[in-house]
Structure formats: C-alpha cells, structure tokens
Design goal:
The structure is a homodimer. Chain A has one domain: 3-Layer(aba) Sandwich (UDP-N-acetylmuramoyl-L-alanine:D-glutamate ligase). In chain A, helix 3 packs across helix 11 and helix 11 packs antiparallel against helix 12. The longest helix of chain A has 16 residues. The first copy, chain A, has 13 helices and 13 strands. The first copy, chain A, is globular. By secondary structure, chain A is of the alpha/beta class.
Chain lengths: 326, 326
C-alpha cells in the first residue's frame, strides 16, 4: 500500500445553500417537516424561494461542508461532486478551493443548474432543508477517479448520495476502489428520512462496506427500525469497526468493538444548527487520520460542531486549528 | 401636497455583497485601503475573488441595506436601483422584496452583470470594500419615475451614486422632483474617498438640495477639507436642516439649527462593521418619518447599527421592531 497523499476524500452533493429565517407557521402552512431534508423539483424550488424571506447564500452540501472544516483543521482533503457551469457553480468551486480543498470534478455543461438547498432556520435554531438537486443528479461512476480514491486514507460518503440515482453506482464504485487500495470507508447516514427511503441499501452498505459510521440518534433508530437506542447501539457495534453517534446537546457516543467513549458537547449559544453533524464528522476524521485517539477525535468533533452552530451557515468562520488547540 | 404613500424612497446602487475574512497582510499585499471602498473593473474583480477566502453572498448596496432595515421597522419603503437579468440580480430582487420593499426598477437585459462588492472583513471587524459596478452604471434619469419620487415623504440618496456617471443626472433629477412635490431629500456621504473624488459636486448638492445629511466623521472632514470636527459641525449646521453625524463607538451627534443632540452608541459585540452607517440612517429615517423626535430618531439609529454590526453581513437578522421597542 502506497503512502496516502490525502487524509480525506469526500464524495457528495455539491450544493449552494440559501438560508433564511422562518417561523413554525411558515413551515406548517407548507407541510414542511421541521428538522428534515426534503427533495424538491425546479418548480417547487422557485415557488418556495418566492415565499421565503431575504436569504444569505453560502456554499453547502453535507460532505463538502465537512471537507471545508477538515481542511481548516490542517487535514489534506479532496472533494468530488458535480456543479453546473453557472454562477452558483462558480461560487461553490471558489469556496471549496479557497478553503484549501482539492476539487477536480469537471462541471456539467449545458444541463441542469447547480444544486441549491433552501434552508429555513426556525426561531429555536433548527433548520429545515429543501434541496433541488440540479446538476448533482448527473454525478456518476465516471466522476469517481480511482486514482483520487486510492490516494486518500479515508473516503467519506454522504447518505444523501442515495437520492440522485446515478450517484448510487458512484457510491459503490468508490467504496470498492477504496477497499481495493487498502483504504477506509466512512459514511454519514445524513437524514432519518433519507435512511427510510433507501433502508435496505443502507443496511447492506453499512454491513459490507463501512469502516466508520456517523449517525445521529434518529438516523440510527431509522436504520434499524427500532425505538430502543441501546439495542441500536448494540447492533451497530457488531456491524462497523467505529460508529460515532451524535446526540445534540448530550454530546456523542463512540463505539468501537468492546469500547465505548462518551464525549460531552461543547456548550455554545446556538444560532443555527445547519452543518452541526457535518462539522462533527470533519473534526472526528481530521483527528482520526492524524492518529489521535477516538476520545480525542470525538472532542475535535464536538469543538467543530459548536463553532458551526454558533453562527448562521454551515461553513466555519473561526480559526479551527486554534479552537482544537492543535 | 398629496398624502405620501411611501415613507422612504431609496435610490442607490443595487449590489450583491461577497463577504470573506482577510487579515491585514492580505490587504497590504494588494494595496487595499482598509475601511474604505474602492471601485474595481471586471478583471480586477475576478483576480481578487480568486485570491479571497471562502465567501458568503448577501444582498447589499448602501441605500438598499437601509431600505431593508427601515422596512423591518415598519416604514413604507421603495427602492430604485439597477440589477442585470442574471442569477445575482434575481437574488438582489428576491431579498429586497422579501424584506417588504417596493422595487419597481426594470433589470438590464444583455449588458453588464449585476454589481458585486467583494468585502474583506478584518480580524478587528473592519470591512474593506471593492466594488465592481456592473449593471449599476446604466442606472440613469429614465429609471427615476417622478411619480414614485413624489409619493415618498423622504427620498434617500447615497453618495456612491456619484461614481456611475449616468447616475449623477438621475441623482439631480430625483432631488428636483422631490422638492417640486414638497418632499424632503436625505443624502449619505457614503465614503470619505468618494467625497474626495466628487467634492465640488457634493458641496453644491449638500448646500442646494439636501435636507437631511448622514455622514461619519471622516466623510464630514473630507467634505469640508478640514481636520477640525467642531469647525465642520459649525459649517454643516448652516448648510442643512438636519445633520446626523455618526462617530462609531462614540455614538452620534445630531445638529438641527441651534439644537444639538448627543446620542450614545448601543454596546454590542462587534463582528463585522459592514452596513453600520446604512442601518443607522434606516433607524433615523424610519423614526423621523413616523414623527418621532430627533433624539429618538438617533436612538433608533444606534439600535439598528448595533444589530447589524453584531453579525456577519449588512442586512438585519433580528426583529427590528422589537429591538426599538416600537
């Protein structure tokens, strides 16, 4: 096995976020499921945007957010994902490269526009996401360069990639290429409803291909169709080498074989929870690929999540290296 | 004189801001003048964007920011300004309308793109602005509908409109139409360097057409080419009915005839000073057109400025009515 020249290669949807504040009645009137992620088409996106309040645009995408945070922590990071050759695509490409992430995927020419996620932030800081996948639906196996995969210690995949049909093949291909090269595969379950839409595929992928799993409580319970967290933890322990389970203000639990580590959340003034899980995974993977302990990886995750939820938007605004004391 | 159906009609450059953090060495290496606004062309904008860190996009423009804040305070507000028929133009139009502002100006078809301002925020929260005017340079007299002007209690103009050449005629035409309809004209000096570029025109416009003047210390000193603030205050007192002079953490001074009101700043954690003056003017004009006292108008200004500098970006994030206790 050759020396890795990247610590983390993220593969995910390349999305620009449009964040706006909205109260609970706005969500209720439109049947939007608070705290979740819904897929919408171009027409729905236009109608919702028209009804929304003033917005702030910021590059997003779950794994792309993680990549930006991990690069800020000093990890060597790459990202594969599909934008269009348009204004928002330029914004996405600028932002991820400016964060220090290697981003080789060619933009889509003359098709759907760059994906956007209309994010409604509630007064209690919860976010409700409405994603128009746009150009992301064309991301496929051809966009996964096995040479890029083979040079990263860990590839990191988002469960959201199960939604665009072509990306599912890319997902499997990337995992096979990583394992063939002796590398590790990390997966985020992304969203409880996304797990519900693709449960059988997720169950198989977790068992067969996942070395490091990220999930929050709702996602883990959805995966195993149980309401018993302890039972779900017992099951995930037998299926993956490492599972990092996030529990909002209760912190996180890391299970690895017989070992269990409880990690406290870092207290902060919560402004917007968008990107909390992404930032946790970034901190965890940056520490883990640096060779730090699982408990320390959990601490880095908590520190990163606290930074991202303390302001509007999913990308970090502070000096992340200084925050983790690295 | 008919009853006004708008409280404030703003006329200004229609700009989308791209905010990014940058340290002093980044500014120094590029000869950027910290705290100021520089005009850049399309090529310079591309080069600077490439060198900048990850950005956050948010609708901007000095008077447009004021309009959004004033509408949030319950004032009836309109805005005239030129965007292009492109993605950023759509963002600008969405955001100002979603803020509750009437925005009738037709977008430019097939010319320059929507204006953008690349804003570098320093670790000490100061902002350095680099503006590519794009479609704004085509805003002219034809875009100033006298009927819109005549229906507003106050029209509010930004000094920055002296930069795009066609806008200067629009500026004069709007003031004449307002006074012909018995309305008031408010002006922001915008920027000390902008005042320096167009000093003679500013001096004449302040004397001949301005009822309410907004300026910070540096702008006022530049207008009268003096280093003596007291002397500048004495002069402005003779030239305009009301001058609201902002002094950062020292608060503001309002002079009106023989009267002088000192207004304290509202203490806050300063994150980004972008839009502080715009928000102050919004608070002041919203209170003034509501018939409140000058001292109370100053207090509204201070409250609004404090909200806007407490977070990244120039548009408000809080419930402004609640903040002023209105």
């Amino acid at each position: 096995m050759t020396q890795a020249t990247l610590d983390i290669l993220g593969i995910g949807n390349a999305i620009v976020d449009v964040l706006s504040r909205a109260d609970d009645s706005f969500l209720a009137e439109r049947g939007l499921n608070k705290g979740g992620m819904a897929l919408i088409d171009a027409e729905q996106a236009e109608a919702l945007y028209k009804a929304m309040g003033p917005g702030v645009e910021s590059s997003g995408g779950s794994v792309a957010n993680s990549c930006a945070v991990a690069a800020g922590l000093g990890a060597r990071v790459g990202f594969l994902g599909k934008v269009a050759n348009d204004g928002l695509g330029e914004v996405f490409g600028h932002d991820i490269r400016a964060a220090g992430v290697h981003f080789p995927t060619a933009p889509l020419l003359g098709g759907a526009p760059t994906a956007r996620c209309l994010i409604l932030v509630s007064p209690d800081a919860q976010r409700t996401m409405n994603t128009f996948l746009g150009a992301c639906v064309t991301f496929g196996e051809d966009d996964v360069d096995p040479a890029e995969v083979a040079r990263a210690q860990v590839i990191y995949l988002e469960g959201y990639l199960y939604d665009p049909p072509a990306a599912q093949a890319a997902f499997r291909a990337a995992a096979s290429a990583a394992h063939a090269a002796g590398r590790k595969v990390a997966l985020s379950l992304s969203d409880a409803f996304c797990v519900g839409r693709h449960r059988a595929a997720f169950r198989a992928f977790v068992r067969e291909e996942t070395d490091i799993l990220f999930a929050n409580e709702a996602e883990l319970l959805s995966l195993y169709e149980t309401e018993d967290f302890a039972a779900a933890v017992a099951q995930v322990r037998t299926e993956v080498a490492i599972a990092a389970l996030t529990r909002s203000e209760k912190g996180s639990m890391i299970v690895a074989g017989d070992a269990t580590y409880e990690v406290a959340a870092v207290p902060t003034q919560v402004v917007d929870t968008t990107g909390a899980g992404d930032a946790y995974a970034a901190g965890f993977l940056a520490a883990h690929t640096k060779g730090l302990s699982l408990a320390e990886a959990g601490r880095w995750g908590s520190v990163c999540a606290a930074e991202v939820i303390s302001h509007f938007g999913a990308r970090p605004q502070a000096d992340m290296k200084a925050l983790v004391g690295g």
